[in-house]
Design goal:
- This protein is of the alpha/beta class.
- The chain has two domains: 133 residues, Rossmann fold (3-Layer(aba) Sandwich), CATH 3.40.50.12500; 105 residues, Rossmann fold (3-Layer(aba) Sandwich).
- It is built from eight helices and eight strands.
- Strands 2-1-3-4 form a four-stranded parallel β-sheet, sandwiched between helices. Strands 6-5-7-8 form a four-stranded parallel β-sheet, with helices on both faces.
- The structure holds 1-(2,5-dioxo-2,5-dihydro-1H-imidazol-4-yl)urea (2AL).
């Protein structure tokens, strides 16, 4: 008997939060998540009621983090796990405070998965201006040593919603350049909107291509089946009750 109540066939509900407000992207991410989910896993996809259509700046990310807090508070009560499906992992710590369920950010999940598959990986992302955001996350997660480069392509996030061959080729070319220049063994896709492209890029590149949405779903399933939940000891404890005003009214404990 192991230390945990292991339930390999556990039925579960995963709340999949797209932190941007593009309904098309939410649908695409949900389809990618359902494609890897186990038969007993229900994926409930949602997005904030306010905020940017895509997240490509610090400003966008600040507002999106509040949107993640809103969604986990309003829709997270019966979720067995939560996935935050934007590569900046906006609001990840806030979401962990707000629920007992495990909460997985796609950037953290992808970095960690890639580090198990190669001694070094490269990130291929959207706008070049967002590279520093990924670099800061790598530092924060202690993963900077495993990442050999973060590469912007200047493909806008919303261009991924209807990705044509030219855009796909642009990402493939950037990934090939990254693998050569960085001497990397794997590619991490630096946007949730790239999830539907993972299989094609894997085929074309011949190296592990890690989509954080898929990894986050499988890890969420794994943690839930092990009976592991977010610690409520210390800083991930439920936030202290207090009044909130304005749009945040209704989110307080
Ligand atoms: C993202 C993402 O995953 N969703 C979004 O709107 N922006 N990340 C990124 N690097 O562009």
């Amino acid at each position: 008997m192991g230390p945990y109540p292991f339930h390999p066939g556990t039925d579960m509900k995963i709340l999949l939060i797209n932190p941007n407000t593009s309904a098309g992207m939410t649908a695409g991410i949900a389809a990618a998540a359902r494609a890897v989910a186990g038969p007993g896993t229900q994926i409930v996809a949602t997005q904030p009621s306010f905020g940017p259509a895509s997240i490509e700046s610090h400003f966008d990310e600040a507002i999106a983090a509040a949107g993640v807090a809103e969604q986990v508070r309003l829709n997270g009560a019966d979720a067995d796990a939560v996935v935050v499906a934007c590569f900046g992992d906006p609001g990840l710590d806030a979401a962990r405070e707000a629920t007992h369920a495990p909460v997985i950010g796609i950037a953290e999940a992808a970095f960690q998965a890639a580090s198990l598959l190669a001694t070094g990986f490269s990130v291929v992302t959207t706008m070049t201006r967002t590279c520093v955001m990924a670099e800061r996350l790598l530092q924060r997660y202690g993963m900077a040593g495993a990442c050999r480069g973060v590469h912007g392509t200047d493909v806008p996030v919303l261009a991924l919603e209807h990705c044509d061959e030219a855009t796909l080729t642009q990402l493939e070319t950037a990934a090939r350049h990254a693998l050569d220049r960085d001497r990397s063994g794997a590619i991490v896709l630096g946007c949730a909107g790239m999830a539907p492209l993972c299989d094609t890029l894997t085929e074309r590149l011949g190296v592990p291509v890690v989509d954080g949405v898929a990894v986050a779903v499988k890890w969420a399933e794994g943690l839930v089946s092990l009976g592991l939940r977010t610690s409520k000891r210390g800083d991930y404890a439920v936030p202290p009750a207090k009044a909130m005003v304005g749009w945040a009214q209704g989110l307080q404990w």
